[in-house]
Amino acid sequence: MILHTQLIQQIDALLPQTQCGLCGHRDGCLPYAQSIVAGEAANKCIPGGQPVADELARLLNRPALIAEQSVWPIQTDGRPQRMKAVIREDECIGCTKCISACPVDAIIGSAKVMHSILTDLCTGCELCIPPCPVDCIDLVEDIQIVPAEQQRIAEQDDLRSRYYAHIQREESRRLTRKGPVVRAEIDTQLFAQFSQKDTLLPNIQIPSNTETAVSSIDAKSTIELAKVRSQLKKLEKQLAVRPDPIKQQQLIDLQKQLNNLQGT
Ligand code: SF4
Ligand code: SF4
Ligand code: SF4
């Protein structure tokens, strides 16, 4: 079990920590690392590109695979072009939704005031773009020099720490229901478990009680219900703007999940 955990950490150390979910793991790099140990192919990290697929193949002693393609051109280090998000600030309505969506807390602003992106921290993960109700976030090419390896590793370590801090804050916000819930579905337990194994990471504490004096099972169901309702609402809004068969199916699945949770 210790070896298993160490291997997950070694894999996670090679992943870019963009937390973008493009590998198919919505909650980011750590769940993908865990799934690789369980047997998933190690060539799915799109921002990592071929260099990360090759490093993972070496670490795992598996055959090298062609990395999944990015839509962006390849940089001099063999990885896809780095991108940055930029808010068209005169159009921002200050709804704060992008703040919750940003896994590395690169957005500053508060309710009803214009928001800005801290360019140095932004990884171009694009996660802030879909929640923005007025579509005022653009993605632009990062024109800075491609970082050398040591600098990239330092950046990754910082992004990992920022993500854990973000999860801790969102977990508290979700339970106290302050502000919009955008990524409440993160598997906080998994990150809490790993945060306890690494002293360099912010320690994630999962609040065990809420002020509402309900049993933990009731609280869990209530949170689950709130998450599903919020996802449903979001999908309904998106479908009202543009029909999409995949989202329509997700809506049906979520509706079923909601019915199950409500026991109807
Ligand atoms: S950076 Fe790579 S491993 Fe991490 S979430 Fe994105 S695609 Fe997955
Ligand atoms: S600002 Fe947007 S694109 Fe940049 S890291 Fe945050 S969520 Fe990702
Ligand atoms: S989601 Fe869009 S409108 Fe809302 S605060 Fe962020 S940038 Fe502004």
Automatic annotation (TrEMBL):
The keyword Iron applies. Keywords: 4Fe-4S, Cell inner membrane, Cell membrane, Electron transport, Iron, Iron-sulfur, Membrane, Metal-binding, Repeat, Translocase, Transport. It holds the Pfam family Fer4_21. Residues 3-62 form the 4Fe-4S domain. It comes from Acinetobacter calcoaceticus. It comes from the Bacteria. Residues 83-112, 113-142 form the 4Fe-4S ferredoxin-type domain. GO terms for molecular function: 4 iron, 4 sulfur cluster binding; electron transfer activity; metal ion binding. Transmembrane segments: none annotated. The keyword Electron transport applies. This is Electron transport complex protein RnfB. InterPro entries: 4Fe-4S_dom, 4Fe4S_Fe-S-bd, 4Fe4S_Fe_S_CS, Elect_transpt_cplx_RnfB/RsxB, RnfB_subfamily. PROSITE patterns: 4FE4S, 4FE4S_FER_1, 4FE4S_FER_2.
